[in-house]
Input
Amino acid sequence: MISRELFEQYAKAIDTNADMLQAAVAQLEAKLSGIPPSEVESALTTAYMALVARYGSFAAAIAVDFYAHQREASGVASAFVPEVSGTAPAWALRWDVSDAYTGRDLAKAVEKLGGKSVQRVMEQADDTLLQNARHDPARPRWALVPHSGACGWCAMLASNGFVYVSEATANKSRHPNCRCRPVVDFDGDPLLEGYDHGRYEREYFKARKAIEDDARKEWAAMSDDERGRWKVKGKGAYDHYMRNRITAQMDTRRAGE
Ligand SMILES: [Zn+2]
Output
């Protein structure tokens, strides 16, 4: 079990890191305002990449620290030294900028990159935990603990609870501004102190029940072509379609709370 105290420390550190990153990204608008329009995109790319690299390395370090502490607290006997890993690929960051700057509006681009940068940096914390969990002989399990006000997608991921890393990778997919905290646990009773994971499970099943009949009818009415569009790597088309419907339903319910 992860102690409340350790989790709160970790959550605070990783949240503060995201806050500082967002503040730094927000400053880019003023910093780049005087330069010639033709140079804005490349300057924005350089600055954005530097910020993601800097705060991403902090996020990875915070994740390693959490990993080491939780491993120690669990009394695992085998020796293993966790390491930081995961840098956001340069092509992905370049894509973030060109996508955010399509309208040639610096203020809008900076706002969009604020959310995107948090995603990129949190992914480095995810990656650090997942890579270590993969190599650790103690085989910890992995979960995402949603922040308050998390969206349906994140609540759906949280409903999976603690899983082995091999199962976790398929679900790894953050959205901009996602601040869910990735965690690992090592003992047989993998719970976070004071955390009601069942709440997300119940939400999931309620949402599933609410849309099931309708979704089945809709699926039955689709052409093969339409069904084929739901096919993604590693997941059947129907499963993917259903997951999408359930997530949307969870989102609607969460927004109405
Ligand atoms: Zn999230």
Notes: Residues 146, 150, 154, 178, 180 surround zinc ion (CB under 6 Å). The chain has a mean pLDDT of 90.
